[in-house]
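tool_call: predict_structure(chain=1)
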Amino acid sequence: MTYENIFEAVFLDRPNRFIAHVFLDGHKQVCHVKNTGRCRELLVPGATVYIQKAANPARKTAYDLIAVRKGGRLINMDAAAPNKVFGEWLAAGGPGFVPELIRPECVHGDSRFDFYFEHDGKRAFAEVKGVTLEEDGVVRFPDAPTERGVKHLRGLAHCVEEGFEAYAVFIIQMKGVKYFEPNRVTHPEFAQALCQAAQAGVKLIALDCEVGKSSLVAGDRVEIRL
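tool_result:
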């Protein structure tokens, strides 16, 4: 996926989870943060960020915060991007097959999953999570407790019980990481639910990404350690 109208700026502060202040071309600007996670290790004063000019001039915020540099690593922060990246990867045959049908945002039981798809006579659901938390090359999810995430994992396990394939997909919005693991410190219940989902037959996928200032593309599979 690609972005248009990207500008380099300097992060100043984040007064709430939806808004950030940045310094661009000598002026302070207000940006919409397209990620409601904590991102405390990313959004530090003085960090280089990449922002997108909004297409709608009537918007309250003229820019969206898309990516940030953490040391020498460029990390995409757009929470909507992982679904797009996975959808492109899936349609291109990334899992080893090309689905005959791909349908986003499908309800099954009491859960709404990011994707429903069919391949080789099989029916499948997938839930996609974006990963931006990194420490010494290890990436983790979530960066804040997510009861919704736990519900999705349990819903995927129920799908397997009903004869569907089910996938929990972690799109790592950066490159050059060692491995992925659930964040037991931040949300032990999610870590437990992920292990239980895997034991129930839910397929786990972690993919890193090639991150550009104005692009994000699925890269390679990353080892998952439970």
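agent: The helical segments are 81-91, 147-161, 188-200. Proceeding to next step.
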